[in-house]
């Protein structure tokens, strides 16, 4: 019923569409928004705790410490505003992290392992989802030192 009302309202223009959406649909949308914001808050808290645990386990010095930091920066680049799939990727930050990884001799697999430990996701899959083919090529060329730094 609500779906039909929304589709019917589309032809009435924006104001007509908004005014004709039943209150129960607005309540459902509000509840979904609150639930999503709660999820993001909890996820952010859990991710921060995992990051802190990883730092505690490997320290902040050395290549493993740098790998935790790089994993965190890459996650921040992929979740630019913290709102998931629609907030875009900060490609400049991704390239800067790759540059620092190369300069400090931190290999991709070490960062990928830390990324998996902290965020529960595969870094290579995240890169594949976040960057187009040209951006991936640039990222991996920077890691190999074959891109202009």
UniProtKB/TrEMBL annotation:
Q: What is this protein called?
A: Uncharacterized protein
Q: What is the species listed in this Swiss-Prot or TrEMBL entry?
A: Persicobacter diffluens
Stored Gene3D superfamilies: Annexin
Q: Which GO terms describe its molecular function?
A: calcium ion binding; calcium-dependent phospholipid binding
């Amino acid at each position: 019923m609500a779906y039909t009302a929304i589709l019917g309202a589309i032809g009435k223009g924006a104001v007509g569409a908004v005014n004709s959406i039943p209150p129960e649909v607005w309540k459902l949308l509000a509840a979904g928004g609150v639930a999503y914001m709660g999820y993001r808050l909890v996820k952010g808290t859990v991710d921060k705790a995992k990051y802190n645990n990883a730092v505690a386990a490997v320290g902040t010095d050395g290549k493993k410490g740098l790998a935790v930091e790089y994993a965190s920066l890459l996650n921040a680049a992929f979740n630019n505003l913290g709102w998931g799939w629609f907030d875009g990727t900060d490609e400049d930050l991704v390239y800067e992290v790759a540059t620092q990884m190369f300069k400090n001799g931190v290999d991709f697999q070490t960062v990928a392992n830390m990324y998996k430990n902290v965020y529960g996701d595969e870094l290579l899959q995240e890169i594949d989802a976040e960057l187009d083919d040209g951006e991936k090529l640039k990222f991996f060329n920077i890691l190999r030192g074959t891109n202009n730094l």
